[in-house]
Structure formats: structure tokens, C-alpha cells
Amino acid sequence: RRQATEYSTSSSDEEFESKPSLTHKAKRAIRKRRKLEKETKQLIKQEALKRLHKAQAVQRQLEELEERQRALEIFGVKLERELRGEADSGTKDENQILHEWFELVMEKNKLMRYESELLIIAQELELEDHQSRLEQKLREKMAIDGKSKGNVCSSPQGQTVP
Fold it and tell me: Which residues cross the membrane (predicted)?
């Protein structure tokens, strides 16, 4: 009997000792998960900041481009007047004025293509930002679902009870 009693006591002691280690493991897992969540949030913030800086750079480039296009418009109007003979062209001949006008048209087309590229980049940044917000919402919903599943326990009959 003593051996049986000692055996049952020692086995219950082992169970008792294993419970704190499980709690310790659970605490460690929680800490690890929180650390991972924190790192993920930091990465998300860094990516958002990078997108913001890139968007600001694109905006500045678009403003500079607009100023350059206005200057070309003004110069183009002057050249057209000279070609029509409405303005004094001075020593310039018609071929030289036409050459300048064609160069101006080519420069304007180049600026328009560049503007299109910048607008595409801006749209990509908007889409990346939207995707990031959707991913964040998904993570939040999955975390809520995970917590609600974690709160489910089993009854003695083996049935799941919320």
C-alpha cells in the first residue's frame, strides 16, 4: 500500500510540477507573439513612411514638371507669333524658328510622358497603401477570431462550450 500511495503521490506531484512549466511556456509564447506583433507593426509603419516619402517626392516632381510645362507654353506662344510674323523675330530666319518650335514640341511630349509615368507611380503608391490597410484589417479580424477560438473550452462530457 505504501508503495502504491507513494507512487500515486509522486505522479500527482509530477502533474503539479508540469502545470507551472506549461504556464511558463504559455507566457513565453504570449511574449513571443506580442514581440512579433510589435515588430510587424513597426515594419508596417516603416513601409507606410517610405510610401509617404515617395509620394511626396512624386508630388514635388509633378509640381516642377507643371512649372516647366508652363514655361514651355509661354515660349511656344512667342515662337508661334514669330512664325506668323506677328512678333519681331530679329535676326532669326524662319528655318531657325521652326527648328526651335519642333524642339519645343519634342520637349513638351517628353514632359507629358514623364508626367504619365509619375501619375502611374502615384497610383501604384495609392494601391499599395490600400493593400496595406486591407492586410491590417485582415490581421485584426484574424486576431479577434483567434481570441474567440481561444476562449472555447471543453465540458466534462467532451462537448465544446464557449
Answer: none
Contacts of residue 22, defined as CB under 8 A and 6 or more positions apart, other chains included, come to none
pLDDT in tens, 49-89: 999 999 999 999 999 999 999 999 999 999 988 888 877 76
CA dihedral of 75, 76, 78, 84, whole degrees rounded to 10 = 160
Q: Identify the burial level of 62 via C-beta atoms within 10 angstroms of its C-beta, where 0-12 means exposed, 13-18 middle and 19 or more buried.
A: middle
Sketch the domain layout of the chain as residue ranges.
36-141
Q: Report the C-alpha gap between 139 and 151 in whole angstroms.
A: 18
Measured N-to-C along each axis, helices 2-84 and 94-150 cross at an angle, to the nearest 10 degrees, of 160
C-alpha cell at 62: 509633378
Predicted local distance difference test score (pLDDT) of residue 8: 47
Question: Cell 509620394 maps to which residue?
Answer: 55
Q: Residue 162: what pLDDT? A: 46
**Look-up: residue for cell 514623364?**
114
Q: What is the DSSP string of 47-101?
A: HHHHHHHHHHHHHHHHHHHHHHHHHHHHHHHHHHHHHHTSS--TT--HHHHHHHH
Record the pTM.
0.65
